[in-house]
Specification:
Low-confidence stretches of chain B: none
Strand content of chain A: under 5%
Oligomer: heterodimer
Low-confidence stretches of chain A: none
Number of domains of chain A: 1
Mean pLDDT of chain A: 90
Largest interface: A-B, 26 and 21 residues
Shape of chain B: rod-shaped
Distance between the termini of chain A: 24 Å
Helix content of chain A: over 70%
Number of strands of chain A: 0
Shape of chain A: elongated
Structural class of chain A: mainly alpha
Radius of gyration of chain B: 19 Å
Order of helices and strands of chain B: H
Chain lengths: ~170, ~50
């Protein structure tokens, strides 16, 4: 499927003109993009390391997952909106950039994984990990830890690919 | 979906992602190393031919 026309449209849009002519605004949006990424990864790392029994082991995992969820969504919105603005400045360059596509693939995979498998498994964490009291429908501990490691790997690769776009 | 099935699905998906994405991402890492070498070396590295 050829989706270059989307980049051509973005490249010719008023958003692209604004991004190219307003250096101050562009740098501020860049800061928002990075801060959103930090917030997203911070919230995800907190939940994943809790499930690996590394941090905040005295706090029930349900509380940590519930409290980080809202901030994950806010950070995702910040990343996507600021990312569209940033990409409009170099849309045609990004259309053929392998790091950009790797980042997009990782981002999509990370979001789907987080909303489906991670969410479902973490809500069924066994007592030995979650400290949420006895559960009748708990999954095995090693599955929870495997999901945590997978999630960390996906988001680390997304962040790294985002940085590497600048190298190419 | 039962909890047992969910656990199996999650485990399979996680393993597939770690292996599949790991292989794909490994290529990205190699490309990055090549670009870094090209940027810091005076000679044109051979790996640039494959990019």
């Amino acid at each position: 499927m050829d989706i270059v026309f989307i980049f051509e449209w973005l490249d010719a849009s008023w958003l692209s003109d604004l991004a190219r002519t307003s250096a101050g605004l562009f740098s501020m949006v860049q800061a928002v993009h990075i801060l959103s990424m930090i917030m997203l990864c911070g919230m995800l790392i907190l939940g994943d390391l809790r499930m690996l029994n590394v941090v905040l082991t005295g706090v029930p995992s349900d509380i940590i997952i519930a409290n980080t969820k809202k901030w994950i969504y806010i950070a995702l919105a910040g990343i996507i909106l600021s990312g569209i603005y940033e990409s409009s400045a170099i849309a045609m360059k990004l259309a053929t950039n392998s790091f950009f596509w790797a980042k997009m693939a990782g981002l999509l995979m990370g979001i789907v994984f987080m909303l489906t498998i991670r969410s479902a498994i973490y809500s069924r964490a066994p007592e030995v990990i979650g400290s949420n009291g006895p559960q009748s429908d708990a999954v095995e501990a090693w599955v929870v830890k495997l999901v945590a490691v997978t999630n960390l790997f996906i988001w680390f690769s997304v962040a790294a690919n985002g940085r590497w776009i600048g190298f190419s | 979906m039962t909890t047992n099935t969910l656990g199996k699905v999650a485990a399979v998906c996680s393993i597939v992602i770690i292996i599949g994405w790991g292989i794909y991402w490994g290529v990205q890492v190699q490309d990055t190393m090549c670009l870094l070498e090209a940027a810091t070396s005076e000679d044109f590295p051979e790996c640039m031919d494959n990019l």
